[in-house]
Amino acid sequence: MRLVPLGSTGIMVSAVGFGGIPLIRLNFEEAETVLRHAVDRGVTFFDTANRYVDSEEKMGRAFAGLRDKVVIATKTGQRSAKAAMEELELSLARLGTDYIDLYQPHQVSKPEELEALLGPGGAMEALEAARTQGKIRHIGITSHSLAMARKLVATGLFATVQFPYNIVETEAADNLFPEAKAAGMGILVMKPFAGGMLDDGGLALRFLRRDPGLLALPGCDTVEQVDLAVDIFAAEADWTEADEAKAQAYRDELGSRFCRRCEYCQPCPQGVSITYAMMYRVVAKRMSPAKAVKFAATTMESVRNCLDCGECATRCPYNLPIPEMLREHLAMFDSHKAAQ
Prior knowledge:
The strands form three sheets. The protein has a five-stranded parallel beta sheet, covered by helices on one side. A four-stranded parallel beta sheet has the order 8-9-10-11. A two-stranded antiparallel sheet has the order 1-2. The termini are far apart. The protein has 16 helices and eleven strands. The chain has helices spanning 28-40, 55-62, 81-95, 111-118, 123-133, 146-155, 176-182, 201-209, 223-234, 241-254, 274-277, 280-287, 289-295, 297-302, 311-315, 322-338, and strands at residues 3-5, 12-14, 18-19, 45-47, 71-76, 100-105, 136-139, 141-142, 160-164, 186-190, 214-216. It has two domains: 3-240, NADP-dependent oxidoreductase domain (TIM Barrel); 274-338, no CATH class.
């Protein structure tokens, strides 16, 4: 596995990293198998977050005795100094380490969040103190808002920026990535599979492999997925006309108004299965409407409980009009059901 610099941090990392969200689906033994296989294949960069249920604990157990072989990144969603320090201490305990290589305030996408983060008593005060104490080596930042991500890069306060980028979400390449590179920042790519909507993993990773300045973080929960990522990033970049045609087909299918399955919108107070209901249009196209009706019946029937309170939309980092989209998908489901 090739090693590449993580921006100007002085840290060398594997050419592809490992996203920790899918570890939630595994038990501790299964997670250890996947994580240690990744280390054996040369992956050195592992990204997780305090809010990813038990992902940190699973990494901590898997990396016992391997701390010098891995670069660990984790995150906090807290904006105050006190709460951020509490989460940092919790992450250190869960990961079984006395330092974290890259600590990132998570999902800073609104002006008021940035103000709270950087203002008096804000999380940055605690993180800078923790860096002085040696508990953090470097401070990065993550966002789902392009405009905010560019503002965060311009502050000069962060060593890395983590942002969604994939076949169908390419806007960051026009300005965010060049600005981050000019500032000497490392660029971490979240959502390489568009939240699972890109079902051709090889195609999605080959697309990212073309830019050696990006560190892709594919989420893996099997050794086969690890092998796919490693094999692609260990090879020369290869992007064919056939690949571009497939990529364009995904763009035509998904557009820009689709759910990335981040699940920030949940839970719904009325029990609506928001994430899976938001996928109905794509499921119906890939399965056929007749099969989709049977497959998604329970999910789509839960949409009838929606009171249009809009709480889910306020939590969506992509600003999707979730209630409106749920109504559209329910109408489609009902039409498919009636046609049987």
